[in-house]
Amino acid sequence: MILSGSKYQWKLASTEPGLASDISRAAGVSEPFARVLAARGVGSADEAIRYLAALDDPLPDAHLLPDAGRVVERVRSALESKELIAVHGHDDADGVTATTVMMEALDQLGASVVSYIPDRKTEGHGLTRAELDRLHGAGVGLIITVDSCVSDREFIRYGNELGIDTIVTDHHEIPPELPPAVAIVDPKLPDSRFPYRFMAGVGVALRVADLLMDDLRGEFGPAGENVPWYGPNWRQESLALVAVGSIADKVPLTGDNRSLVTQGLAAAPGTNRVGLRAALEEGRLWGRELSPEDVRDSLGRLMGRAPGDSPGTQKALDLLAMRDPDDARALAASLFERQSKWRDEAVAAWRKVREDFERDGTAASSPVIVLETDVPVGTAGYVASRLTEETGRPVIMVGRRSSEVMAEARGPVGFNFVDAFASMRELFIGYGGHPRAAGFSMVPSQMPRFRERMDDFTRSNPPEPDPRRIDAELRLEETTPELGREFELMKPFGQGNRRAVLLACRVTSATLGDIEARGVRFGTPVRIGETPTDVVFRLRNSEGVALVSILDTIASSTSGG
Question: Which pTM was predicted?
Answer without folding.
Answer: 0.85
